[in-house]
Amino acid sequence: MAVEMLSYIDKKSPIHSLTGATKLICLLLWSFTAMLTYDTRILLFLFVASIVIFKISKIKLKEVSFVLLLILTFLMLNNIAIYLFSPQEGVGIYGTKHVLWDLPGRYDLTAEQIFYQINITLKYFVVIPAALLFMVTTQPSEFASSLNRIGVSYRIAYSVAIALRYIPDIQRDYRNIALAQQARGIDLSRKEKLSRRLKNAAAIIVPLIFSSLERIEVISNSMDLRGFGKNKKRTWYRARPFKVGDYMAITFLTVLFIVSIIVTFHDGNRFYNPF
Q1: How far apart are CA 106 and CA 85, in angstroms?
Q2: What residues form the membrane-spanning segments (predicted)?
């Protein structure tokens, strides 16, 4: 069976050995570092580091290729939209204008605009691998127990665990319903016209919605019957204490975040200007 999109992938790696809370804290620090800076040197360092971390995790590219393609498509559309709606944004930020290609109106292609959009692209390439690793290397129940350990209400933590578990369930349901409908003669292949395929897709979406609602009702009734939420605390089967690796990872990301902030804002401007 194919690996479900964004579902937990069990492997033996240093990334998998970290607790869910550690990975969440590291993801937040990593994301804040990437989002707050426009220093290309820092972004390039983070980009190379994200590739190394991805390699260490032993997650194969083909296991997350579909999600990557979706995100890269969105990134391409985002870059096109930035240029269409603000083609001189880079000029305004860096204060100079080096025209590479004369175009009508305000759409002159400038080195500053290209540099600005390269930084935007680097931000995506830095954050995306970290977010994907968090999703596919974190077991939902273990992550919920870790959240509860750092002070998050176990009700909220359990809701997060159910949401993470629900992603592969929806995918399996969609695949099963699609196969059943195709067995009944509903064609979803490229042989059909796009309008016909969209109409046929409704034959999958409607049963999927009803099966999802039914599953939600079953789960909520089961939790009510077991008295979920009655007590202030609960125990966790997959609870794990922090180890040396967890403290090292959090310390490293904290130091990286602080150094990034210092380097980014040392001159009062978070944009690195090579012009």
Answers
A1: 10
A2: 27-54, 66-85, 114-136, 244-265
Evaluate if residue 3 carries a pLDDT over 60. Answer: no
> Which amino acid is residue 54, in one-letter code?
F
Is 70 exceeded by the pLDDT of residue 103?
Answer: yes
If asked whether residues 169 and 226 sit together in one domain, one would say yes
Q: What is the pLDDT of residue 251?
A: 93
**Cβ atoms of 228 and 1 closer than 8 Å:** no
Instruction: Show the domain range for 10.
Output: 1-139+241-275
Whether residue 144 lies inside any domain: the answer is: no
**Total number of domains in the chain:** 2
208/106 same-domain check:
no
Quote the CA–CA distance of 110 and 204 in Å, as a whole number: 47
The alpha helices in the chain, defined as continuous H runs, are 14-17, 20-36, 40-56, 65-85, 89-94, 111-136, 140-149, 154-183, 194-225, 244-265
Distance CA(245)–CA(18), nearest Å, equals: 7
Q: Which residues of 169-178 are buried (b: 16+ CB within 10 A; e: fewer)?
A: eebebbeebb
**Rounded Cα–Cα distance for residues 181 and 129 (Å):** 35
Q: Amino acid identity of 198?
A: L
Tokens 């012009």 found at: 275
Backbone region of residue 154 per phi and psi (left: phi > 0; alpha: psi in -120 to 50; beta: other values):
alpha
141 and 10 Cβ atoms separated by less than 8 Å = no
Between CA 174 and CA 166 the distance in angstroms is 12
Tell me the whole-structure pTM to 2 decimals.
0.75
